[in-house]
């Protein structure tokens, strides 16, 4: 069940998911998580990289679209 929900949310809104991950990390650090600035930056960079790949796969066509044939023109 949780896997299907995650697939749906991450698959449909990868950029929003990345923003939420970054915001949760910032809140955790603000409220006392024991992470250095370098660790926070590394986690954020990894999240942004993963989200970038997910977003690209969500918007990149898998094949070149072919225009429809013009009416009355034989193939």
Task: Sum this structure up briefly.
The chain has three helices and no strands. The protein is mainly α and 75 residues long.
What's the helical proportion of residues?
A: 55-70%
Number of DSSP strand runs? 0
Question: Averaging pLDDT over every residue, what do you get?
Answer: 79
Biggest sheet, in brief? none
Low-confidence stretches: none
Assembly state: single chain
Question: Which structural class do you get from the secondary structure elements?
Answer: mainly alpha
Element pattern in H and E: HHH
Number of domains: 1
* End-to-end CA span: 48 Å
Q: Strand percentage, roughly? A: under 5%
Shape field = elongated
Rg for CA atoms: 20 Å
Counted by DSSP, the helix tally is: 3
Structure, explained:
- The protein has one domain.
- It contains 3 helices and no strands.
- The protein has helices at 2-12, 14-30, 37-59.
From the structure above, extract its key features:
75 residues; mainly alpha; 3 helices; 68% helix
Secondary-structure blueprint of this entry?
Layout: H1 2-12, H2 14-30, H3 37-59
